UniProtKB/TrEMBL annotation:
Signal peptide: none annotated. This is Prenyltransferase. The chain crosses the membrane at residues 12-33, 39-56, 76-94, 100-117, 129-148, 160-179, 199-218, 224-244, 251-270. The keyword Membrane applies. It comes from Flavobacterium lacisediminis. Keywords: Membrane, Transmembrane, Transmembrane helix.
């Protein structure tokens, strides 16, 4: 059991799990817009997420050298380097339009991590901003990028998908913020810190309900599957919201919650 726990911890800490969620969301976007046989964006999103998230989590440790580098961190650095090479490989498979889009979202990641302005903190520590940067970045990588690569012209359906994805990611981050409400710096002003856990949960339910309502505004008539599929996803996240509290273990959000896109993507693939 100890070995299995170490493997699971490394899987989560190295951002492989969240990267698989990104791969799943890109694949679902491509499925709902009828894009077939193009895995370059999904793999770019996967390896880019590994690099980006590890950069965000471990950049301060690497730059300031505040702690002794442990074996696990060395392994994560090595994995990130391999992922960076793979990310470059799939990046060069993309069209020029997609490359420009990727640079834009990479810039958001840097803004989120590095203090660009003198005597200022990075965007991750700006009051109430973190959740919006995370949402916009995930929309860009998992919706805009695959559709740009597929040369699908901008339309109302694309905007709806982007807004739905933002609402989905926003709701997921709310669960993380509830679980971490005791540990987050009070200056971050996360949603639960500002309005309380009960109102945060109600906000999450409202956003998930709005996500489902938007499904009826697509100009291209969808068959029943997309709505049913999103209903299952929203229902699952609503359950996680309901049971979320500050005493949950780190696996509640970091593993089980982030498994939701992966689980429903696998259901989509199989059935």
């Amino acid at each position: 059991m100890v070995i299995l726990k170490k493997i699971l911890d490394f899987y989560i800490n190295s951002s492989l799990h969240v990267a698989l969620s990104a791969f799943a969301l890109v694949s679902m976007t491509q499925y709902f817009f009828g894009v077939e046989g193009d895995f370059s964006v999904a793999f770019f999103a996967f390896f880019g997420t590994v690099v980006g998230y590890n950069f965000v989590k471990y950049d301060a440790i690497a730059r300031l050298n505040k702690t002794e580098i442990k074996k696990e961190l060395k392994a994560i650095v090595f994995l990130s380097f391999i992922s960076l090479l793979a990310c470059f490989y799939f990046f060069f498979q993309l069209s020029w339009e997609s490359k420009l889009s990727a640079f834009t979202f990479f810039g958001l990641t840097l803004l989120y991590t590095l203090p660009f302005f003198p005597n200022k903190q990075n965007a991750r520590n700006w009051k109430g901003v973190k959740i919006y940067i995370v949402g916009i970045t995930w929309v860009g990588v998992t919706v805009i990028l695959p559709l740009v690569e597929a040369e699908i012209s901008y339309s109302m359906d694309m905007l709806l998908m982007a807004f739905q994805r933002f609402l989905l990611v926003f709701s997921i981050v709310l669960v993380f913020d509830i679980v971490d409400v005791k540990h987050d710096d009070i200056h971050l002003q996360t949603v639960p810190q500002k309005i309380g856990v009960k109102l945060t949960k109600k906000l999450g339910y409202l956003l998930l309900f709005l996500l489902l309502i938007l499904e009826f505004f697509y100009t291209n008539n969808h068959h029943f599957l997309p709505f049913f599929f999103k209903l299952l996803v929203c229902g699952t996240i609503a359950v996680f919201l309901f049971f979320a509290n500050e005493n949950r273990s780190r696996y509640y959000a970091s593993f089980w919650l982030e498994s939701v896109p992966i689980l429903w993507w696998l259901v989509l693939v199989v059935f």
